[in-house]
Amino acid sequence: MREFIPPAARFVDLPVDFPLRRGGTLHGARIAYETVGRLDEDRDNAILILTGLSPDAHAASHPADTAPGWWEEMVGPGKPVDTDRWYVICVNSLGSCKGSTGPASVDPASGDPYGPDFPELSMEDIADAAAHTVRALGVERLACVIGTSMGGMSALSLLARHPGLARSHMNICGAARSLPFSIAVRSLQREAIRFDPQWNRGRYDAERYPQRGMLTARKLGMMTYRSPQEWDSRFGRTRITPERRRDTDPFGPAFEVEGYLECHAHRFSRRFDPNSYLYLSRCMDQFDLGDSCGGTVEDALGRMRLERALVIGVETDLLFPLRQQREIADGLAAGGLDVEFLALDSHQGHDAFLTDTDRFGAPMAKFLAAL
Amino acid sequence: MREFIPPAARFVDLPVDFPLRRGGTLHGARIAYETVGRLDEDRDNAILILTGLSPDAHAASHPADTAPGWWEEMVGPGKPVDTDRWYVICVNSLGSCKGSTGPASVDPASGDPYGPDFPELSMEDIADAAAHTVRALGVERLACVIGTSMGGMSALSLLARHPGLARSHMNICGAARSLPFSIAVRSLQREAIRFDPQWNRGRYDAERYPQRGMLTARKLGMMTYRSPQEWDSRFGRTRITPERRRDTDPFGPAFEVEGYLECHAHRFSRRFDPNSYLYLSRCMDQFDLGDSCGGTVEDALGRMRLERALVIGVETDLLFPLRQQREIADGLAAGGLDVEFLALDSHQGHDAFLTDTDRFGAPMAKFLAAL
C-alpha cells in the first residue's frame, strides 16, 4: 500500500472527527489540493475542479510544479479555464491515494495503513470533504464547480448538499447515478482485483501485490474509456510484429490493440492503490443523487440553487452514456436554470474530455467568459 | 476436459487426415450435426445453420430430441425457418466441445484429450468441415446458408471457399472480420482463463478446473451480448436483497445486475470446455475474409456466387456493431447480388437474434418464402 502524492500538493485538515455517511469516522484525515491562479480580493473568482476516479490534484502545471497536469490543455493562462482570470482549486478525492486520506493512508489508531479497514466511502463523503476544503481556503462562494466523469457525480452531490456554495456548474461526461452497465463493468474490475490471490483480502505490499488483477481491471477500464470507432481507425487489424511479442502463449496478445492495453495497464497498475480503487469503484456504483437527497434524481436536480449550468456529453461514451448527461441537463432546466446541453460528436468516447480539447475547449471558455 | 454432446447428435467423419490451415492435421476427426425436416427428392430444400461460439447443433426440437433448441422460436414447423418446407442442417463447429472434434476430444495419437496440443484453429477450417458435412449428407447445393454471430463469419468463409455450394445467404449479426474492440473483449476473456492458476496451461480436470476464469470470461461476454439500454429497464438500480446476498465481501455483488451475471456465468462455466473457448475465441480474432481470399474484404464479398442475400444487424450490438453488417451488405451488393439489409431497432444488443424473435422472424420468413 502506497500513496502517490504529487510534489506540490498542499493539504487541508478535515475536522478531527469526520463521520462518514455509511458509518465509521475518520480521525485526523486530510485532503490534498493544488491551486492555479490567484484568488482576488472579493474571493469570487474561484473555480473548483472535481476529478474522475484516478487523477490527482495536479490538473495543470504551475510555478511550484511545472510538470504537465492531467488537464493541461484545458487549464492555464489563456486556456479555456483561464487562470489569468480564475483561481482554480483542484481537489484529490477523499478515499484516493494521491495525498487525500484513503485506504493506503496510515490509520492513527493502529499506526498501519487502513487497507480493508477503511470505512465504507460514499460520494457524499467525497463531496463534503471537497466543500470543507474550499471553505478552508477562504472561499464561501465558488464561481463554478466543474466535475468530470466521477467528478460529475461528486459535484452534483456537493451542489445538493451545500446549496449556495457555487454560482454555476459545468458537468462534463458525468452522471446523476450509476446505471447497470457501468455497475457491471466496475463489478468485473473489482472481481479481477479481489480474486487475485495476491490481493489477500486487502493486505498486500509491494512484493506481494495484486498486479495481475490491477492489469485486468485497468484494461477493462480502458475499453470503456475509449470507443470502438476510435480503435477501428487507430489500430484496425494491425498485428504486433513477431519481434515485439513478449508473450509466447498462443492465446496471448497478437494484435496492436492488445499490446496497447497491455502497455497502458502496466503503466497504471503500480501507480494506484488497489484498495483505493475498490473503495472508489464501489462508491460510484452506490451513487444516486436522488437517494442522497431523499427523493428522485429529478427532485434533487430541480432544487439546485445555481444561476447557470453547462452539461457536456459525448455520443460515443459507453461508461457515462449521453442519456445520463441529458438527464442532468433536463433536470436542472426543469428547476428553472439557464442550462446549455451539448452532445458532442466525438469518436473518443468517455475520455474525449481529456483528449478532444478542440471540441470541449470552446464551449467551456464561452460559458466561463459569460459568468 | 469434457464434451457436452446433445443426445440426438449425429456425426459425419472428416477425411481421415484433415489438414488445418495454420498447420497441423487432425486424424479421425468428426463433426456433430442435427437435422430437422425432410430432404426432398431433388435435394434442393436444404438450409445450413452455422452457430455462434457456444451453441451446439440442437437448434430446434425434433422427434429424436424434444428438448427446446437454442433457436427454438425460429426453426420448426410453421416457424420463420419452416421445417415443413425446409430440411435444416445445424452443424456444431469444429473445435467446439459439443460433439465435433475439439481440444476436449481424445487425440488418437496419445489416447488423451488434445487439450493445448490441439492445432491452431481457423475460421476456414470450421467452414471446410461444415461444407464437408453438408456434402456427406448428399447435398450439393444448399438453398441457403444461415450464419449467426460467429456463424456469420464461418458462413462467409464457407461461401468464399465453396462457390456454388449455396444459392442464398442470411447473415445475422455477423462480421467479415474482427475489429479491435471485439478483439480486446476476447483478449480479456482469454486472460481471465489463462491467468486462472487452475487453467494450468490447458491441463485441468473436473477437480482442478479454471472455474474462476470461466466465470469472469462469461460475465464479460454477457456484457457485450446484451445492451446497456436493455439493462436500464430490466435491472435499473435494484439491489440484491440482503437475504439473497451470498457474498459477504463488501466489494461483492450488491446490485441485481451483478447477481444476474453471477447466475448466468455459473450456469455456463461448467458446460463449456475452457480450452475450446480459447481456441474458438482466438480463431474469431484472426478471421478476416479478405486475408482468407488473398485480397480485401470487398474483393471477397464482391466475388460471392449467390442469387440473393439478407443481412440483418442491430443498432445496439456492441460486439458485432452494425457497421460490420453494413459492410457485408454493401460488399455483396457491389458484386451485383440482390441484397436486403436490415438495421433493426432492437434494445437487446447482439443477442437480439435469440430473443427478439418478433423483429427477426418476419424478414427471415419473407426471404425464405421468396426463394
From TrEMBL, chains A, B:
Function: Transfers a succinyl group from succinyl-CoA to L-serine, forming succinyl-L-serine.
Active site, renumbered: S149, D317, H350
Family per record: Belongs to the AB hydrolase superfamily. MetX family.
Gene3D superfamilies: 1.10.1740.110, alpha/beta hydrolase
Places the protein is found: Cytoplasm
Amino-acid biosynthesis as UniProt keyword: yes
One term of GO molecular function: homoserine O-acetyltransferase activity
Enzyme class: transferase
InterPro entries found in the cross-reference section: AB_hydrolase_1, AB_hydrolase_fold, HAT_MetX-like
Protein known as: Serine O-succinyltransferase
Region named Important for substrate specificity: 52-55
Pathway info: Amino-acid biosynthesis; L-cysteine biosynthesis; L-cysteine from L-serine: step 1/2
Reaction equations catalysed: succinyl-CoA + L-serine = O-succinyl-L-serine + CoA
EC number: 2.3.1.-
Site feature Important for acyl-CoA specificity, where: R186
Residues of the AB hydrolase-1 domain: 70-356
